[in-house]
Design brief:
six-stranded antiparallel β-sheet, binds calcium ion, Jelly Rolls, alpha+beta
Length: about 230
């Protein structure tokens, strides 16, 4: 499915816009990264490994481990309410007509009923991932309940309002019959494809505030040294 999508994108590019595609694969294997942000009642984003168990809203259920590699993402909806969103990636520097494809795998052992996951997106300003501008839509397909299943979607950037696209995992919990005010979810193997001129951010690529401040301080010092030298 993804391959077909990329081929279709390639054909579209060949006939209209000549830019190269970049793609990113992230499977949480760094053991550190989680998500870039969230909306709604999203709780306990953690980078996990090995067998995990949690609540499906009514009873305990478990996953034997990562879909690939050894690490994967855990998130929860707690307390239940609305449709929480986990921000998995932020694609910025986009222009009208750009194609962005994204996919990830979600764990789900309840076919045809919640809990389930979907892939969705919304527009935001590149300077602030929390600057919701408007929905970008997504795929109406849910995780299929067979264990790990893949969710994917391709967006054509409309470019009218802003220059960033946030890729979301949307969490759907039991709406009736539940006994717990919490549902756990697991995600692995994120893949993003975007034009070369765009920037793809995901959780592991964001510098810690401390190291980022040090980096800025270092750049400032270099500028100071350069200025001093130019005065000699
Ligand atoms: Ca993984
Ligand atoms: Ca389900």
């Amino acid at each position: 499915m993804l391959v077909k999508t990329l081929i279709a994108a390639g054909v579209a590019l060949a006939t209209s816009q000549a830019y190269a595609l970049q793609s990113l694969d992230y499977g949480w294997e760094d053991g550190v990264g989680t998500i870039l942000g969230s909306f709604g009642n999203l709780a306990d984003a953690t980078n996990v490994s090995g067998s995990q168990s949690g609540s499906d809203g009514a009873s305990s259920y478990s996953v034997s481990g990562a879909r690939s590699g050894s690490r994967f993402l855990h998130v929860a909806e707690a307390p239940l309410g609305g449709t929480p969103q986990a921000y998995l990636a932020f694609v910025t520097g986009l222009q009208a007509g750009d194609l962005v494809s994204a996919s990830f795998w979600g764990y789900d052992n309840s076919a045809g009923t919640n809990p389930s996951l979907r892939i969705w997106g919304h527009y935001a300003d590149a300077a602030d991932i929390n600057s919701y501008v408007k929905s970008a839509g997504g795929s109406n397909t849910y995780t299929d309940g067979s264990g790990w299943s893949e969710l994917s979607n391709t967006w054509t950037f409309d470019g009218g309002a802003t220059d960033g696209l946030v890729i979301e995992a949307r969490l759907y919990s039991m709406t009736s019959g539940g006994t717990s005010d919490r549902t756990d979810f697991w995600i692995d193997d994120l893949r993003i494809s975007a034009p070369d001129h765009a920037t793809i951010q995901f959780a592991a690529a964001v510098p810690e505030p401390e190291s980022y401040a040090l980096m800025l301080a270092g750049l400032g010092m270099m500028g100071f040294i350069a200025r001093r030298r130019s005065h000699r």
